[in-house]
Amino acid sequence: MTDSLKAVYIKTYGCQMNVYDSGRMLDIMRPHGFHHTDDINTADVIILNTCTIREKAAEKVYSELGRILILKNERTKLGKETVIVIAGCVAQAEGKEVIRRAPFVDIVVGPQSYHNLPMLLEQIKRNKSWIVKLDFEENNKFDLLPEELGKGSSISFLSIQEGCDKFCHFCVVPYTRGAEFSRPVSNIYREALIMAKNGVKEIILLGQNVSAYRGLPPDIVEDHDIDHKIHKDLKNQENNTIIISDIQKNHKKNDNFNYWSLSKLIENIANIKEIKRIGYTTSHPIDMLNDINLIFLHCTEKKLMPYLHLPVQSGSNKILKSMNRKHTREEYFQIINLFRKYRPDIALSSDFIVGYPGETDDDFADTIDLVKQIEYSQAFSFKYSARPGTPASEINNQIDEKIKDQRLQILQELLRKQQMIFNLQKIGDEMEVIFEKPGKKNGQVIGKSPYMQSVVCDGSLDIIGEIMNVKIVDAKQNSLFGKII
Ligand code: 5AD
Ligand code: SF4
C-alpha cells in the first residue's frame, strides 16, 4: 500500500444501521487523510458493508468480490494497489471463511470493530497480510466523535442502541449484532450537539430496538447538571473517552442506576435549539408499554415526529407465537390505538414476513385483516428466508416459494394502496419540510415531511438544509408535491 492510498468507496447493503455505520466509517477515516469516492474504479480502498438479514447474503458478497478481484488485478497491472475490506454482518458471521474463499480480501471487520479501520489499514500497509477483527467492544466505536459528524446533511441518523435480545425465531440479528446495548446519555447528547453545530435539523434515533433503550444517566459522572457536563466533555474530548470507558466498567459492576428511557432521551435532545425534529426507529411492541411517557410525548413534544415504525411481522397469533414475538395481535392493536389516541395523525409503518414456516391461508388472511384495520402509511414486506442457525430454519413445514410469491404480491398491493391513500390525504395540508437534496429535474428540490414522506418542490438549491412551510398540492405513490409558502 502506497502513501497516496486515499480514495474510499463504500457499498452499503441492508438496514439503516448499516447506512449509519458506513457514514461513521468515513467520518473516522477522514481525519487520517482518506476521502470518499462514488467511483469504484478510482478507489484505493473498497469497503463492502454487508448484511445477512435475508436471502443468500453471503453468496451475493462473494459474487461481488469476484467482480472486485477483476478490478483489483487491472489496477495491479497499472502499478496501483487496492485494499479490500469486508465489514458488517457477513463479516461477523463468516469471519475467516471470507479469507478462505476470497484470499485477496485484506480486512474483515465486524460491526463493533470498524472504528479500528485507520489502524488496520496502517497495519496492512506495513505487514501486507490479511486481518480479521470481530471483537464485541461494546460502545468503544462511539467514543470517537469526529467534529465533522453530520456535516453537509440536514437530516441524520444517530445510533443510540445496538443489538437485540429478543431472539425472534427467524432472525440472525441477535447473533451478528450481539446483545442489546444502549449508549450512555452523555455520549449520545454530545453527538447530537456536534450534529446541531454542523447544521443537522432532524435526528433519527437509530437502533435494532430503540424502545428497549436504557441509557446510563449523565449524572453518574459526578455531575448533576447535564449541560455543564456536556460542555466540559466537549472541551476535553480525550479525557471523555476515558470517562465513558470507566462508566462501562461501573455499569458492569453496578446495575442500580436510574436508567434513562427513550422518551427521557428524546425530551433531552429536544432541548437543543437547532434540532427541529426528532424521530426514532426501530421499535418492538413488547417494550412499548414500559415507556408510556413515549406515547404522551407524541402529544406534547412538538419536535417529535408523528411517525411510528412498529414491526408486527404477522397478523396471526399462531404465527406470532411460532416466531417468538412474545405478543398477540390484540396487544398490537391496543398499542396502536393508544398512539392514535394521543396523536391521531400519526403515520404508521411496519415490517411483515410472508410464508413463515407453517403459515396457512387462514394465517395469511389474518395478516391481511390486520393491515386493513390498521391502515399503514408505508411498510416493508419480505418473503421468509431461512437463515442458517435460527430456530425457524429447522421447522419442517417450510412454505413453497410460489405461495410466498403470491402472498407477497397480495400484501404489497394492499400496502401500496394504503400508502397512496395516506399520501392523497395530505393534499391541501401545510407542513414543515426539511430540504435535503436537489430533485431529479432542474429547479426542483427534495425535502422530507414530518411523516417521513419525500416532498418535491420548485425552488433554488440554496434552500437545501433549510426548514420551510410547504403547501401540499399533489401526491404520488412515493412522494408528495408542494409549493413553498
Ligand atoms: N426472512 C425474511 N425477513 C426477515 N426479516 C428478518 N429476518 C428475516 C428472515 N429470515 C425482516 C423482518 C425484520 C426486518 C428488518 O427484516 O421483517 O423486521
Ligand atoms: Fe431480529 Fe426480532 Fe431482534 Fe428485530 S426484535 S432484530 S426481528 S430478533
From TrEMBL:
Enzyme Commission (EC) number: 2.8.4.3
Gene from which the chain derives: miaB
Reactions accelerated catalytically: N(6)-dimethylallyladenosine(37) in tRNA + (sulfur carrier)-SH + AH2 + 2 S-adenosyl-L-methionine = 2-methylsulfanyl-N(6)-dimethylallyladenosine(37) in tRNA + (sulfur carrier)-H + 5'-deoxyadenosine + L-methionine + A + S-adenosyl-L-homocysteine + 2 H(+)
Domain MTTase N-terminal stretches: 6-126
InterPro entries, sorted: Elp3/MiaA/NifB-like_rSAM, Methylthiotransferase, Methylthiotransferase_N, Methylthiotransferase_N_sf, MiaB_methiolase, rSAM, rSAM_horseshoe, rSAM_sf
Family to which this protein belongs: Belongs to the methylthiotransferase family. MiaB subfamily.
Transferase in keyword set: yes
A GO term, aspect molecular function: metal ion binding
Record text on subunit structure and interactions: Monomer.
Domain TRAM: 424-485
Residues annotated as domain Radical SAM core: 150-421
Domain of life: Bacteria
Cofactors, names only: [4Fe-4S] cluster
Task performed by this protein: Catalyzes the methylthiolation of N6-(dimethylallyl)adenosine (i(6)A), leading to the formation of 2-methylthio-N6-(dimethylallyl)adenosine (ms(2)i(6)A) at position 37 in tRNAs that read codons beginning with uridine.
GO cellular component, as recorded: cytosol
Cofactor binding remark: Binds 2 [4Fe-4S] clusters. One cluster is coordinated with 3 cysteines and an exchangeable S-adenosyl-L-methionine.
Positions that bind [4Fe-4S] cluster 1: 15, 51, 89
Keywords per UniProt: 4Fe-4S, Cytoplasm, Iron, Iron-sulfur, Metal-binding, S-adenosyl-L-methionine, Transferase, tRNA processing
Protein name, per record: tRNA-2-methylthio-N(6)-dimethylallyladenosine synthase
Binding site for [4Fe-4S] cluster 2: 164, 168, 171
Compartment annotation: Cytoplasm
